[in-house]
Design brief:
Layout (H helix, E strand, L loop, with lengths): L4 E3 L4 H10 L3 E5 L10 H9 L6 E6 L4 H9 L5 E4 L9
Parallel strand pairs: 1-2, 2-3, 3-4
Length: 91
């Protein structure tokens, strides 16, 4: 079965379309160099508008392990997607 992730969600207005489309995942980008970068606070507000059954993925590039863990523990994201030089110990 193919699963769909819509990535780079940055605005509350977009959440209505996301919820209507019902992808399995949405992506919040926490890489500061990205034009789609989100603060944890904005991601938290977007997550509150997300329909049940859609999981929020945090996209990270060489982020401190504590930042990823905090967002997972607070429920801002459900899954972490790592795109840096994270080693086995980090993972």
């Amino acid at each position: 079965m193919t699963r769909i992730k819509l990535c780079g969600i940055t605005e509350l207005d977009t959440m209505d379309a996301v919820n209507e489309l019902k992808p399995e995942y949405i992506g919040f980008v926490f890489a500061k160099k990205s034009k789609r970068f989100l603060t944890p606070e904005t991601a938290g507000e977007l997550k509150k508008r997300l329909a049940p059954g859609i999981q929020a993925v945090g996209v990270f590039v060489d982020a401190p392990m504590e930042q990823v863990a905090e967002l997972l523990n607070k429920g801002v994201i459900d899954i972490a997607q790592l795109h840096g030089r994270e080693d086995e110990a980090y993972i």
